[in-house]
Every structure is written in structure tokens, then in C-alpha cells.
Amino acid sequence: MQIGIPAETVVGENRVAVTPETVKKLISTGHNVVIERGAGVNAAYIDSAYEQAGAKITEDAYAGSQLILKVRAPQGKEIEKLAAHTIVVAMFDPYRNPELDRFASQQVSAFALELLPRTLSRAQNMDVLSSQANLAGYKSVLLAANEYQRMFPMLMTAAGTVKPARVVIMGVGVAGLQAIATAKRLGAVVEATDLRPTAKDQVESLGGKWLDVPMSEEEQQRAAEAAKNGYGWTPGEQYIKDQAAIVDKAVANADIVITTALLPGRDAPRLIKAETVAKMKPGSVILDMAVETGGNVEGSKVGETVVTANGVKILGVPNIPATVATEASALYARNVFNFVETLFDQEKNFAINQDDEIQKALLVTHAGQVLLKRG
């Protein structure tokens, strides 16, 4: 079987779906790998490195390939290049992708890596969301620090003392935890908040301060039950009001705020309103990591730095993992290979097995049908 790796066409997408390391692994399974010329250049993986690993450089990686590996799903005219019964493995943004019907009508089997069931232990090494969020959390702090016109650590100088930056992290998932760790390493005072009370221990273990919101016994029970099942919980009206007051105060006093909250298949939750931004000090920086899906911050814009009337910068940086493309590609490529291995049968041939719980969860189009339930 021929495995094709086309170049990414989305503006600003510098990552690539395979690296020379994973090319060797794919070839060792007995399959051929073709890579579009220059596909890895933006991630510092040059054509000669792929050739040394055994891949063939081509002008069109779609031609003759039965398996396509990408970072972003094919779109527009790319879809027309897919032959019937081709398998595509990529990030499809499935709940927002308007072109799934086109994949189905062309008899393409599409696997959306974002749908990986993260509660399965054997799926952890395939989890692209976690690997990319980890890098995004790290880089988000550096991007914010670059815009911040003061220092992160406290400094004692002959000219006086420089106070440490106050950083607030909203959302303590993979990205949030890495952001806390990075901000602490840079010398900031860090506070963090999340709807999951269980995140408190993680925040404090990294040296951050937990922004505690009072909870009733009923809410504590509901939150604990949701945590057991791996789901979020819906807080009551009083909790929402209490949280809003605590967040408003913390953000108003912060120098840097990083928001990381995302909801699969839905717009990002609005965490910071304009009236809270209006209370912040001139020169403060907010980085909205959810800007591509509606934004956590009122006023953020994709790809723009918005400066408010009171001198606050709101950074709407899209696709942060692509700003550390070499490492992001390395991690993504390993995730992809680990998933592709589940598609091999005992003879190392590709065989889709819808009884496999991972394959079943990721398969969004197959045999002419859209399998994803978007309701």
C-alpha cells in the first residue's frame, strides 16, 4: 500500500503529519511512503531527510495513495483528489466541518483524531489533543511575555525592586497546567481557576494558587460524580455568580491572563467580559487560546492583537502549536503512527475494524455515509 503525505494548505499551518522517524516505522511495516515536495520544510524537516528515511518525494502525494496522513483534513479541491476507498487520518474539526458529506459521497473513510476516547489507557499515546495542547500551553506564556512590557520575575536592583508579574490561568486542562508550569519557571506569581474542583491539587503541586469558589454539598457531589465519569458538570446559578465575582477580581488585578477553555463541538465558553477587561491595568495582556472557536474573551479576534481603550492587549493567536512546528510535528507524527498501527491486520495489511472501540470512535465517514452524530 502507498501512504501519501500531502503538504498542508491552511494558511499558517507549519506542521507536517510524518517525520523521518515515523517514515522509517511506516516503511518497516512493508508499505511505501510518498511525501509532497517541501511538505515538511516549515517544520524544519527537509526533503533529503525524508529520502534518507526511505520515502519518495513527489509532486502529488494524493496520486496512487490508499492512505493519506495530514494535520488538517483535506478541503476544497484537495477532496477531489481522493480516490474512492481512500483512508484519510487527520484532524477534521468534525463538528464544524461542512465538507463531511463530500468525503462520504466519494467513498472515503475518514478518521478524525480529535474524537479519540481519552478515557482509554491504550489510546493515550494517540492523543493529538493532549500532545498539541501541552505545547500550546507552553508557547502561550512566551507569546504573552513577548507582548508584556514588564518583567516576569521579581528583581532586586540598585535602582529599586521589580515586582513579579501576576498571571491568571483560566482552565486547568493539559494546556492550562503547562501554562502554569511555564509561568512559574519564568518567575511569575500564578493563580488558576477551573470548573473541576479536583484540579486544585494539580495547580498547587505546580506552585500556583487556586482561585477557590465556595460550593454547596450538592454541587461538590455532582462535580465529584462528573469527574469519575470523565465529564464536566453544570454548576448552579449561585456558583456561577460566585465564580464570576472571584474571576472578575483576579483578572482585574492580573498582568497577564491566559484562557484555555474549549468545548468539543460547541463554541468556546465566554469567560471574560468587556467590563472585566475595562478594569485591568494599562499594559496588561490577555491571550485567548480559544479564539478560533468563538473565544473565551469578549473582544478577541482571530489573528489580531486588539488594544482596548484602557491599554489592554488581547491576543487572538490561532493555531499556537504551529508556532513550535518542529516539536509539534514530532509529537503529532508519533500520535498518528500509533493510531495507524491499529489499522494493520496480522499480515500488516490495512483493514478497518469497526468493532475496535478506537477506530469506531474516530471513523466519521465510511462506505458512503457520514457516521458522526452531530445532534
Question: What features would you describe in this structure?
Answer:
- By secondary structure, this protein is α/β, with parallel strands linked by helices.
- It has 12 helices and 17 strands.
- 32% of the residues lie in helices and 17% in strands.
- The strands form 3 sheets. An 8-stranded mixed β-sheet has the order 3-2-1-4-5-6-16-17.
- A hairpin with a 2-residue loop joins strand 16 (363-366) and strand 17 (369-370).
- It is globular.
Topology:
Blueprint: E1 2-5, H1 20-28, E2 32-36, H2 47-53, E3 56-58, E4 67-72, H3 77-80, E5 87-91, H4 100-105, E6 109-112, H5 128-147, E7 155-157, E8 160-162, E9 166-170, H6 174-185, E10 189-193, H7 199-205, E11 209-210, H8 217-229, H9 237-252, E12 256-259, H10 274-277, E13 285-288, E14 305-307, E15 313-315, H11 325-340, H12 357-362, E16 363-366, E17 369-370
Parallel strand pairs: 1-2, 1-4, 2-3, 4-5, 5-6, 9-10, 9-12, 10-11, 12-13, 13-15
Antiparallel strand pairs: 6-16, 7-8, 14-15, 16-17
Helix pairs in contact: 1-2, 1-11, 5-6, 5-11
